[in-house]
Design brief:
Layout: H1 2-11, E1 24-28, E2 33-37, E3 43-46, E4 51-56, E5 60-66, E6 71-75, H2 96-115, E7 124-129, H3 140-154, E8 159-164, E9 170-175, E10 180-185, H4 191-207
Parallel strand pairs: 2-4, 7-8
Antiparallel strand pairs: 1-2, 3-6, 4-9, 5-6, 5-7, 9-10
Helix pairs in contact: 2-3
């Protein structure tokens, strides 16, 4: 019976918006919806009644939607490791690389929502992640939280809900059509895999330049 239901669900798979074809998507029986799973450095936008999921350690995810036109999405990002002595503010001129990475992640998500008919003044924003799980380094999670909140204040976008900080990783399931979010705080058993994934992502960030050619538009 389950196999039959899965086959029927496959027939109703919503087409991804242009540019998001490479994002991994699968049928999720628990929520009876298609699910897009995003990794560090990725984001996903949808008009359909599907879910967006990710697992966060020190990274941050912003879940953003326009409830009027029912379009929404999620990103997953972290700032590069702070190599400036004693400096943690993303607004510091010497932290320009971090600013570009964070701004690119936020602006890319918001701009794609606006292209789909969203209005900036209607955007509903929720923040998750930023756990202090990379204990050998500075508290990157706290820096990610600081950046996200500061960016949203500068853009005059209010945070309607958040679950950030502390010392544990999280699994986030976002329903853009309704704005509902499910957050599961993960056990220490899952921590090392998440730490390893974030370290691989930081290494990749050091190998390529940050995007800096995106600007918010109204």
């Amino acid at each position: 019976m389950a196999t039959v239901l899965n086959r029927l669900a496959t027939l109703g798979r919503p087409a991804p918006l242009p540019g998001f074809e490479r994002i991994q998507r699968s049928w999720e029986p628990e929520h009876e919806r298609w699910s897009a799973r995003i990794l560090p450095g990725e984001y996903f936008v949808t008009r359909s009644d599907e879910v967006v999921t990710t697992v966060l350690g020190s990274c941050i995810s912003a879940c953003v939607r326009d409830p009027t036109v029912r379009v929404g999405g999620m990103n997953h990002f972290m700032l590069p490791e702070d190599t400036t002595s004693g400096r943690s503010s993303w607004l510091d001129p010497q932290a320009g690389l971090a600013t570009r990475y964070g701004s690119f992640a936020m602006e890319s998500l918001i701009n794609d929502l606006l292209k789909c008919g969203a209005r900036k003044e209607r955007l509903e924003v929720k923040l998750f992640g930023g756990g202090n799980i990379l204990s050998a380094l500075t508290d990157i999670g706290a820096r990610n939280i600081e950046f996200a909140r500061s960016f949203l204040r500068l853009e005059r976008l209010a945070v309607s809900a958040e679950d950030v900080g502390d010392v544990f990783p999280r699994r986030v399931v976002y329903f853009p059509a309704s704005g509902r979010v499910l957050v599961r705080r993960l056990k220490s058993l899952d921590r090392q895999e998440i730490v390893n994934e974030e370290r691989r992502h930081m290494a990749k960030m050091g190998e390529r330049p940050a995007g800096n050619d995106v600007e918010l538009f109204d």
